[in-house]
Q: What sequence folds into this?
C-alpha cells in the first residue's frame, strides 16, 4: 500500500513539476569538491567519528567516509559536513 502511495506522490510531483526530494521526503545530497557535503531531508545522525559519519534517511543509511570529518552546520532537516571525503555509500534500510 505504501509503495502505491509513493508512486502516486511521485506522479503528482512529476505532473506538477514539483521537486521530488520535497514531495517524497527523500534526501538531497550536494557534494562540493571533496571537502563539503550538504544533506537535506535527513532523519538524524547514527554514527559520528573522525573517519566515518552515518546519516539516517527515508531511503536508508547514508555512509560518508574520509579524513577529519566534522559537522559544520546542523539545523532542521539539513546537515553540512566538512573534511576530506573519500566516499559516499547508500547502505539501504535496516541498520
A:
Amino acid at each position: 500500500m505504501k509503495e502505491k502511495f509513493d508512486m502516486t506522490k511521485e506522479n503528482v510531483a512529476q505532473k506538477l513539476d514539483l521537486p521530488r526530494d520535497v514531495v517524497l521526503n527523500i534526501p538531497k545530497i550536494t557534494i562540493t569538491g571533496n571537502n563539503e557535503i550538504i544533506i537535506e531531508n535527513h532523519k538524524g545522525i547514527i554514527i559520528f567519528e573522525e573517519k566515518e559519519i552515518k546519516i539516517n534517511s527515508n531511503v536508508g543509511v547514508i555512509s560518508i567516509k574520509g579524513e577529519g570529518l566534522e559537522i559544520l552546520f546542523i539545523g532542521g532537516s539539513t546537515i553540512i559536513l566538512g573534511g576530506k571525503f573519500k566516499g559516499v555509500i547508500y547502505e539501504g534500510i535496516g541498520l
